[in-house]
């Protein structure tokens, strides 16, 4: 199954996405848009492919997927000077992925802070948001955020990058409607961005509802390899995780989380 660019444009005509670009293959949809931000007005642009050959994750991690087994989508958003709330964009994209998968396939995933989407505890999608200063936003010296999401769609068990991953086809036993999935995700992302950055309390409430991290005992590895073990109690107004480490409150904007078994 392939993406229907014309149907996608029709389905998203009343959203913030003014330019829909479906490409046969590319190295990285995020890198494509970040590079173009230096010379183009790219706010409202979405770039999609089912063959991303040099995908990027946090901490400069890279990955590849067999052709046609993953849906990669990157969306460019003019963020102006709202840089204090940039941490919310990956969380917001996670909420959009939950809603989009639920609408298109009927299965509701959960979220692992900061950027993983899970079905039955296994990773179905990852998210990378990147910010770049650009004089080409139409907002003076504001910046552009590129929000990238990679969804495992039809990978077989022996094609998964790690044993803790899964694909929509494996998890649900259903055929994956690519165009419907992309449209549902991008519509949800557009709607959620209407709440950002003015209603972060509302976003935090929605995140709590879909989070598999909040309320769990976790291991949080901070930049510099400092390790914190405690209970994740929430996210703050900036999208940072809050962990109660035996009475000591730790708030982190970045880090790797492992869900621990209850003690």
From TrEMBL:
<protein>
    <recommendedName>
        <fullName>biotin--[biotin carboxyl-carrier protein] ligase</fullName>
        <ecNumber>6.3.4.15</ecNumber>
    </recommendedName>
</protein>
<dbReference type="InterPro" id="IPR045864">
    <property type="entry name" value="aa-tRNA-synth_II/BPL/LPL"/>
</dbReference>
<feature type="domain" description="BPL/LPL catalytic">
    <location>
        <begin position="6"/>
        <end position="197"/>
    </location>
</feature>
<dbReference type="InterPro" id="IPR004408">
    <property type="entry name" value="Biotin_CoA_COase_ligase"/>
</dbReference>
<keyword id="KW-0092">Biotin</keyword>
<dbReference type="GO" id="GO:0004077">
    <property type="term" value="F:biotin--[biotin carboxyl-carrier protein] ligase activity"/>
</dbReference>
<keyword id="KW-0436">Ligase</keyword>
<dbReference type="Pfam" id="PF02237">
    <property type="entry name" value="BPL_C"/>
</dbReference>
<dbReference type="InterPro" id="IPR003142">
    <property type="entry name" value="BPL_C"/>
</dbReference>
<dbReference type="Pfam" id="PF03099">
    <property type="entry name" value="BPL_LplA_LipB"/>
</dbReference>
<dbReference type="InterPro" id="IPR004143">
    <property type="entry name" value="BPL_LPL_catalytic"/>
</dbReference>
């Amino acid at each position: 199954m392939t993406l229907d660019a014309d149907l996608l444009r029709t389905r998203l005509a009343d959203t913030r996405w003014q330019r829909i670009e479906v490409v046969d293959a590319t190295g990285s949809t995020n890198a494509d848009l970040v590079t173009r931000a230096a010379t183009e007005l790219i706010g409202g642009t979405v770039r999609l492919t089912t063959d991303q050959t040099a995908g990027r994750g946090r901490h400069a991690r890279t990955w590849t997927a067999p052709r046609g087994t993953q849906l990669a989508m990157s969306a460019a958003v003019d963020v102006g000077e709202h840089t204090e709330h940039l941490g919310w964009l990956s969380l917001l994209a996670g909420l959009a992925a939950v809603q989009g998968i639920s609408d298109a396939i009927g299965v509701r995933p959960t979220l692992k802070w900061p950027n993983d989407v899970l079905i039955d505890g296994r990773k179905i999608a990852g998210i990378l948001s990147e910010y770049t200063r650009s004089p080409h936003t139409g907002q003076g010296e504001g910046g552009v955020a590129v929000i990238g999401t990679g969804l495992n769609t039809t990978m077989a068990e022996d094609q998964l990058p790690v044993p803790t991953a899964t694909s929509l086809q494996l998890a649900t036993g259903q055929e994956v409607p690519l165009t419907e999935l992309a449209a549902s995700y991008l519509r949800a992302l557009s709607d959620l961005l209407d709440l950002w950055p003015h209603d972060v309390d509302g976003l935090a409430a929605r995140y709590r509802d879909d989070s598999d991290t909040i309320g769990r005992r976790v291991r949080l590895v901070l930049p510099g390899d400092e390790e914190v073990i405690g209970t994740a109690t929430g996210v703050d107004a900036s999208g940072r995780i809050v962990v109660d480490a035996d009475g000591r409150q730790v708030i982190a904007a970045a880090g790797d989380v492992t869900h621990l078994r209850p003690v």
